[in-house]
Amino acid sequence: MRASRSPCRRFLCARAAACLLSILASAGGAEAAPKRGATPQLDCAASNSASAVPEADASADELYRRGLCAEAERHYLAAARLYQSALQRSPRSSLMERVKARHGFLVRKIPSVRLEPGSVPDGTTVTIGSVSYELGTKLLVDPGKVEVDAAAPGYVSRHVSYELADGEQRVLTIVLTPIAPPASTPPEAPASAAAAVAAPAPAPPAPLPSPLARSGTWRTFGFIALGVGGAGLAAGAVTGVLALGHAKDVEAACPTKTTCSEGGAAAARSGSTESTISTIATIGGGAVVLAGLALVIWGGPKASVRPTVGAMNGLVLSGEL
To answer: How high is the mean pLDDT in each 10-residue block of the chain (321 residues)?
Structure first.
């Protein structure tokens, strides 16, 4: 009876001991795991030192510790990358659970930015930090100050800084100003022109208008008068010749003062008329010719003298002689 109970007791004791060890191990793991959202106190200087193991050769535990240090320094993108590497290398389920919990908590803290394509001109190039950004996409960034640079052909480049909090999702708005065309500048005046402007020479006064009597108009009238007077003299000469001819006819037809034929009387009358016309034409033509000569001589060009005194005394004289 005692022999049959001994194996049963041993089995029960072994099961009880195994359960007790499992409970103790679970309690120890819970105490060692950090609270959700809390960063354990770690020696980050050792993980960031130059003698640290390269990331490609680091263990899952080391990657997890480096991720915690990066998260404490608010380098959320680097921490998320380290957690992902630790999940790929972790051989233990207890460590994997801690990394998954930490990574899920961190993802909700990573801020993001987005720039709409229609808010800037076509052909705009945008750089956020040191990363080339594609318009309309969502870009994850670390919290804190974010530097944004935008440039487009024909527009003034713009640099903008934004401050992002944990988990903030910001839609950026950037305004680019067109480049104004350069203002045209007047050509620079040469030195000689500048000197002329500085000390202008005295300009001579405008010439006085010549009197009408001295212009060519009266001389033209003189030539016309010469022509008319000449025609009058010619008419006087012709009628004078005709009057002489009629005088000879009168002498032949009228031998005495009391005896005269009818033809002689007619010749006498015609000769008297022609003689009067000749006298008037000769006298008038001569007078007109004399007046025309006077106008031609008096209305001819006159020598004018306009003396000018140099700029030494600042006096300018002009006149006609």
So the answer is: 53 62 49 45 63 81 90 91 86 82 90 84 87 88 91 90 90 86 66 52 60 62 78 80 73 67 71 81 80 74 52 47 44
Radius of gyration (C-alpha) of the chain in whole angstroms:
66
**CB-based contacts of 285, cutoff 8 Å, min separation 6:** 228, 229, 230, 231, 232, 233, 234, 235, 236
Q: Which domain holds residue 159?
A: 112-172
Provide the whole-model pTM: 0.43
Instruction: Return d(Cα 10, Cα 16) in angstroms, integer.
Output: 10
| 159, β-bridge pairs | 149
Composition of the chain by helix, strand, coil, percent to 5: 55, 10, 35
312 inside domain: no
What residues have CB less than 8 Å from 98, skipping those under 6 apart?
A: 33, 34, 64
Question: 142 near 130, Cβ under 8 Å?
Answer: no
- Is 321 within a domain? no
On whether residue 197 sits in a domain, the answer given is no
Residues 39 and 98 in one domain: yes
Tally of structural domains, the chain: 3
